[in-house]
Structure formats: structure tokens, C-alpha cells
């Protein structure tokens, strides 16, 4: 059974790939059926009998022509239907009892119904049924209500219905296949979009973790190198700060990598832990690195959602890192976090004059402010960053308390002013 089914499937696939060969085989089969049917006499004394009559030459010619035009039924189904219908009418008019040339018209009507739309099938089908049935009833010697005449009406009607059903099923299958392909494309696009968003989030978090601590290490290492010979005690203190900053960087990197390795736990956090609760530790580290920082924060600031809390912390961290790298010597920074209605506002100011040495070739390549903008915009907030009137730099972020964390990130929507180089 398996071998037989495989062979049948192979033959069917070959015929589907070679439609002209299939139509040729169909034409031969229809011709054979018409010739066999032409030996039947429906008006015999004892009822229909086989072999009591032979087809006339004219009937044989009409049957051969009717079967031959079926080879072209896919290329021009309407013309084939018209030709087979005309041959059938000629058979009804010339020969009595007629040979079953109408079989070719039945196949042609089925093809039209399967290849066109439903309104066309109704119009052409009713016209074919009416014309052929009327010719059979008017020109034959049998009564109009004979089973041969009613059979012409029934077979043409069933051919139209069968073709319409096949066309509807084919359209239904094509629609299902199209929906499946569209769903597959949409799923792949969504997967690519999520991968891109996750890469941006990972890059942003790693930048926030590494850049801040490396900036502190760079400052303290420079201090240690400067005072190593004259003030070794201060150099030791600076190296201690270097060790503490590097330990903090390793800890946050370990936490971030640990979150990336988690899988299969929908309740696991998707953001690193730091927030405004540890803002004091961040400010202390910056102060120990030599940057004076003043903090203005409401005493009873209501707890913020985790994503908003983290974004506020990262904005402050990156802004203070930029002050350390770019504000120049003697600069001071001010940090404020306030709650205004349904938003939290974070502001970082400095009064630095800015260093021109190496400003355009920072290791970060300008990704710090870009990362802040992406993070704030992803939550539905806005961020502005630019020089202050009279000197210095200002970073101001407005974060909605109800964060829209599910929205796609569009980095260009937040920043409207120039970045610090």
C-alpha cells in the first residue's frame, strides 16, 4: 500500500507539473467514454441496450473534435466551452439519437466554473444548461421529458456546481497558506525587532555600568600618578578608590551578566538592581573622585516603578560621568529629583567650562547621551541636554511614573539639543 501510494503521488505530482499532458490524457479518456456511450441505444424496444447500434461517421467526427479542443481548456476555457457547446448542438440537430458529444461540453463548463468567479459561473452555467437542454428537447425524437434530455440538464448543472466548489476550496486553501506565510513573516520580523531591542538594552546597561566606573578609575589613577612621589599617602588613598570603583564595576557586570544568563523564569527581573535608593553611594564615589556634588531630593519622594527608578539612576550616573570627563577642573555639579504630578523630573547641572583637550575623541564615541535618550524615550519620557546660558551643561529628563516599557524604542524622539562632545 505504501509503494502504491508513493507511486500515485509521484504520478499526480508529475501531472501537476505538466498540465498539457494531463489535459491530453483527459481528452483521450473523454473520447473513449463518448465512443463507448455512442454504442448504447436508449430507445431500444426492451429499454436501453449496448451494442445494438453503431455511431454514425458524423458523430465520430464531432466526438473527436469535441475531445480535441479539451486540450486547450486551461488556456482559453470560454472558447473551449463555446466550441464544445456548438459541436453538441450540431449533434443534437443532425443525429437522432445523438451520440454523447455533450460530455465534452460538461468538462468545458466545469473548467470555466473552476477558473472564473461565481457570478460568471452562474451566468455562463445557466446559459449553457438552458441552450443545451432546449436543443435536446426540441430536435430529438424522444419526448421532451425523457431521461436523456433531463440528463443533459442535470449533468451540465452538476458540472457548474462541481467547478464552483473546487474553485472555492482552492481559494480557501490559498488564503490559509497566505495567512500562514504572513504570520511566519510577521513572527520573524517581531523576533528580529526584539533581538535588536535587547541588543540596545544590553549595550546601554553595559555602557552605564562600565563608563561610570572606568571614568572614576581614570580620574583616581591620574591623581595617584600625579602625587605618587610627593604625597604617597594621597596616592594610596587614590589607589584605594581605584580598587573600590573596579570592585563595584565587577559587581555590577556580574549582576548584569547573571540576568542575561537567566532563562525560563518569567518572574525574574529584567533590569539591573541600582536605583535612587543607592543614589547616596553614587554621589559619595563621585565626591571622592574630586567632583563636588550637591543633591536636592524630596524627603518623601514616593517609590517609583522599577524601570523608572533605574532610568533616573542611570541618567544621573551618566550625567555625572560626563561632568567628570568634560566639565574641566574646578567644576561643580547639582543633582535634583522631584515628583511633579504623574511625572518624575531629574536634573543634573554643572558650571564647568569644558575641556578642549581630547574632547572630540572620547572613548565612548558619544554614546552616553544617546543611551540616556533611548532609555528615557522607551519609558515614554523626554530628555533634553545642552549647554547652559552663561556656561556649564544641563541634562533634564522627564519620566512618566506609569512607564510604557512595552513600547518600541525610538532614540531620536527625546533629544532636541546638542550633545556635549
Label this structure with key terms.
single chain, 421 residues, rod-shaped, disordered C terminus
List the quaternary state of the chains: single chain
Low-confidence stretches: 355-365, 405-421
Number of strands: 7
Using only C-alpha atoms, the radius of gyration works out to 43 Å
Global shape: rod-shaped
Helix vs. strand class: alpha+beta
| Sequence of strands across the biggest β-sheet | 3-4-5-7-6
Helicity level, as a percent range?
A: 55-70%
> What value does the average pLDDT take?
78
N-to-C CA distance: 77 Å
Percent of sequence in beta strands: 5-15%
Described by strand count, sense and barrel closure, the largest sheet is: 5 strands, mixed
Helical region count? 11
Give the SSE order as H and E letters: HHEEHHHHHHHEHEEHEE
Amino acid at each position: 500500500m505504501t509503494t502504491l501510494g508513493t507511486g500515485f503521488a509521484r504520478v499526480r505530482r508529475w501531472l501537476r507539473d505538466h498540465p498539457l499532458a494531463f489535459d491530453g490524457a483527459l481528452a483521450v479518456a473523454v473520447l473513449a467514454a463518448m465512443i463507448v456511450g455512442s454504442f448504447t441505444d436508449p430507445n431500444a424496444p426492451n429499454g436501453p441496450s449496448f451494442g445494438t447500434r453503431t455511431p454514425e461517421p458524423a458523430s465520430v467526427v464531432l466526438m473527436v473534435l469535441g475531445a480535441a479542443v479539451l486540450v486547450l481548456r486551461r488556456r482559453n476555457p470560454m472558447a473551449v466551452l463555446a466550441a464544445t457547446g456548438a459541436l453538441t448542438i450540431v449533434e443534437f440537430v443532425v443525429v437522432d439519437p445523438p451520440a454523447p458529444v455533450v460530455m465534452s461540453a460538461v468538462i468545458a463548463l466545469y473548467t470555466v466554473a473552476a477558473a472564473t468567479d461565481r457570478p460568471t459561473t452562474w451566468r455562463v452555467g445557466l446559459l449553457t444548461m438552458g441552450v443545451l437542454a432546449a436543443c435536446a428537447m426540441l430536435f430529438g425524437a424522444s419526448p421532451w421529458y425523457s431521461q436523456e434530455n433531463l440528463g443533459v440538464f442535470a449533468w451540465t448543472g452538476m458540472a457548474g456546481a462541481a467547478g464552483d466548489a473546487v474553485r472555492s476550496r482552492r481559494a480557501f486553501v490559498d488564503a490559509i497558506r497566505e495567512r500562514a506565510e504572513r504570520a511566519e513573516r510577521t513572527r520573524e520580523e517581531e523576533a528580529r525587532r526584539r533581538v535588536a531591542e535587547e541588543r540596545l538594552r544590553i549595550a546601554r546597561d553595559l555602557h552605564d555600568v562600565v563608563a561610570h566606573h572606568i571614568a572614576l578609575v581614570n580620574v583616581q589613577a591620574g591623581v595617584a600618578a600625579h602625587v605618587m612621589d610627593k604625597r604617597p599617602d594621597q596616592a594610596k588613598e587614590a589607589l584605594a578608590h581605584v580598587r573600590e570603583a573596579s570592585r563595584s564595576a565587577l559587581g555590577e557586570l556580574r549582576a548584569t551578566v547573571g540576568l542575561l544568563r537567566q532563562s525560563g523564569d518569567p518572574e525574574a527581573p529584567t533590569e539591573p538592581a541600582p536605583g535612587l535608593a543607592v543614589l547616596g553611594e553614587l554621589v559619595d564615589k563621585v565626591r571622592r573622585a574630586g567632583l563636588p556634588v550637591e543633591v536636592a531630593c524630596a524627603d518623601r519622594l514616593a517609590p517609583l516603578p522599577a524601570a523608572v527608578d533605574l532610568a533616573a539612576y542611570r541618567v544621573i550616573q551618566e550625567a555625572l560621568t560626563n561632568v567628570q570627563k568634560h566639565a574641566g577642573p574646578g567644576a561643580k555639579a547639582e543633582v535634583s529629583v522631584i515628583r511633579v504630578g504623574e511625572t518624575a523630573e531629574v536634573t543634573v547641572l554643572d558650571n564647568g567650562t569644558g575641556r578642549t583637550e581630547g574632547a572630540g575623541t572620547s572613548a565612548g564615541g558619544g554614546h552616553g547621551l544617546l543611551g540616556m535618550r533611548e532609555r528615557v524615550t522607551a519609558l515614554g519620557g523626554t530628555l533634553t541636554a545642552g549647554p547652559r546660558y552663561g556656561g556649564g551643561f544641563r541634562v533634564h529628563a522627564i519620566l512618566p511614573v506609569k512607564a510604557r516599557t512595552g513600547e518600541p524604542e525610538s532614540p531620536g524622539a527625546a533629544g532636541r539639543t546638542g550633545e556635549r562632545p
